[in-house]
Amino acid sequence: MPLEFKTAQTEPSLSARLSKNTWLRYIVALLTIATALVACLALNRFLGDQLAYILLFPAVAFVSWYCGVVPSILTVVLGLVAVKYWLVRPTHSIPVSSTAQSIEILTFLLACGLVAAMGEACRRDKEKLRAEQGELEERVKERTAELDAANQSLRELSGRLLQSQDDERRRIARELHDSVGQTLTTLIMNLSAVRTDMERLANTANALADSQALVQEMSKEVRTISHLLHPPLLDEAGLSSAIRWYVDGFSQRSKIKVHLEFPDDFGRLTREVETAIFRTVQECLTNIHRHSGSSVAKIRIARSTHSVRVEVEDRGKGMPLEKQYEMGSGGTPGVGIRGMRERLRQLGGTLEINADGKGTVIVAELPIANSSSTAPQLEAKTNRDINVAPAELPPLNIGENLSALRNLWRA
Question: pTM, whole model, 2 decimals?
Answer without folding.
Answer: 0.48
